[in-house]
Design goal:
single chain; 8 helices; about 0% strand; mainly alpha; about 240 residues
């Protein structure tokens, strides 16, 4: 409810600013360039759809990558708790805890958890199973560790893959151009009300892209919590 009210207030603020500009700025003696307005709005619509879709796909990839990694890490823990070699199982459990705690403390610094992952992987690679059962489980752990390694890079890219500065510069230039053209063409087929409403829409869509592209702290916090609870402290 709070988030919905906050979003509504933001849209109301956009409308207030847009209508203040539309009704408050004096009309100038400018030539009719209404055709340019439609061209700018068309380009803005295309860029908005493309960038928002890309941002949504990025968020989807991030959640999927986190879920996959957590599932495989949990599998390693479950195997470690089932080994005949209990001492080594406890060592693997400590390595798992170190990795989970590092990532759970700051997911945005995920790339810096390479040392913790390397320690975890080397713990698995150096295991010398003494029983047939442990040998079979070790082969499973080797495959799971390899799968985690393959997922780490895509997860890093998802965390750092937001819209870059050049993309924002182009997008905001087009949005600003459309807004200025709308204001200049009041009286040339555009009423103050239609201009104000369109300007509010431009600002709302730009804000939507920003909030979709940006990984908010509460969202990251929820993902970090999943790491903190994925493996229990005590085996």
């Amino acid at each position: 409810m709070y988030e919905a009210l906050y979003a509504f207030n933001r849209i109301a603020a956009f409308m207030a600013v847009a209508f203040a500009l539309s009704y408050g700025l004096p009309l100038g003696a400018h030539a009719d360039s209404s055709s340019s307005v439609f061209n700018a709005l068309l380009l803005f619509s295309f860029l908005s759809g493309f960038f928002i879709n890309r941002a949504l796909e990025r968020r989807k990839r991030l959640r999927t990558a986190v879920e996959v990694e957590l599932t495989r890490l949990r599998r390693l823990y479950n195997i470690s708790a089932s080994l005949d070699d209990r001492a080594w199982g406890s060592r693997l459990h400590r390595a798992l805890l170190g990795y989970h705690r590092h990532v759970g403390a700051d997911l945005m610094a995920y790339a810096k958890a390479r040392d913790e992952y390397r320690e975890l992987a080397m713990t698995v690679y150096r295991f010398a199973p003494a029983t047939e059962r442990d040998r079979a489980l070790w082969h499973d752990m080797l495959q799971t560790t390899r799968d985690i390694a393959l997922e780490r890079r895509p997860l890093e890219r998802s965390l750092a893959g937001g819209l870059q500065a050049q993309g924002w510069a182009v997008y905001l230039t087009i949005a600003g151009s459309a807004g200025v053209l709308m204001l200049l063409n009041r009286g040339h087929g555009f009423t103050a009300f239609s201009v104000g409403l369109t300007l509010a829409g431009l600002m709302a869509v730009a804000d939507l892209l920003y909030r979709t592209d940006r990984l908010a702290r509460p969202e990251i916090g929820k993902l970090e919590e999943t790491y903190r609870v994925n493996v229990p402290d005590a085996p």
